[in-house]
Write a structure and sequence with these properties.
This protein is α/β, with parallel strands linked by helices. Helices cover 48% and strands 15% of the residues. Strand 1 and strand 2 form a beta hairpin.
């Protein structure tokens, strides 16, 4: 059985037993779609809207996010700041491994489209921004399967902070200051330039950003195309 992060309206966890899925219930091929970006970029809203659209089109799709496990989130919140970037990278990698085995791999193998709000690119950007060696972080996350498409929603760090001001966060420790966010953005942009991430300007309205993401999914995966 794998745990499924609730779709669209709640943050609760629902369960779905893979062994009970019939051939009529699953898509012929599962995909992993990663949505990345700084806090305040709109990535959570975009990820959930994509799942809504996919479900409406008849695809079997789920929303999930990282960090995933409340147990690992508790560790980060309690001693993460004290222990520093290397410790944080280790905990995030452990959480990611659990997330892969519990949710992502079983779902994709069952023909489900998984849309994840953050993936290993976040570790490269955030722990890298705090001083962790990027090559080491990459090595630490070698177990992670590559997504079929990874989209980076770009926003000015100051704008992101203003959008997030006063909003609650599941991971208090990961609420970063402007200096860290500026460094993280530089690392994200370097991954765009290397071809690891696809760039979307997230400074416009959510609807406009969503349209750009839909276009990328159509071009790269052949899904959510107009008229299909």
């Amino acid at each position: 059985m794998y745990l499924r992060r609730a779709l669209i309206n709640t943050g609760k966890v629902a369960s779905l037993r893979v062994s009970t899925l019939s051939s009529d219930d699953v898509s012929p091929k599962g995909y992993l779609i990663a949505i990345e970006g700084l806090d305040g970029s709109g990535k959570t809203t975009i990820a959930k809207r994509l799942v809504e659209l996919l479900t409406a089109r008849g695809y079997r799709a789920i929303y999930t996010c990282e960090p995933y496990s409340d147990a690992f989130i508790g560790i980060l919140n309690s001693i993460g700041r004290k222990m520093g970037a290397l410790f944080e990278a280790l905990i995030m990698a452990a959480d990611r491994y659990y997330h892969l085995k519990e949710v992502i791999e079983p779902a994709v193998n069952a023909g489900v489209i998984v849309v994840t709000d953050r993936y290993y690119y976040s570790s490269l950007a955030y722990q890298g921004a705090k001083g962790a060696d990027l090559a080491w972080v990459r090595e630490l996350n070698k177990f992670a399967i590559n997504p079929n498409i990874a989209i980076y929603l770009d926003i000015d760090p100051e704008t992101g902070l203003k959008r997030k001001a006063g909003k609650p966060s599941r991971v208090e420790y990961l609420q970063e200051n402007l200096r860290i966010l500026e460094r993280a953005r530089q690392i994200y942009i370097s991954m765009v330039e290397s071809g690891e991430l696809l760039y979307v300007d997230a400074s416009s309205s959510i609807d406009e950003v969503l349209k750009k993401c839909i276009k990328l999914l159509c071009v790269k995966l052949g899904i959510l195309c107009i008229g299909t």
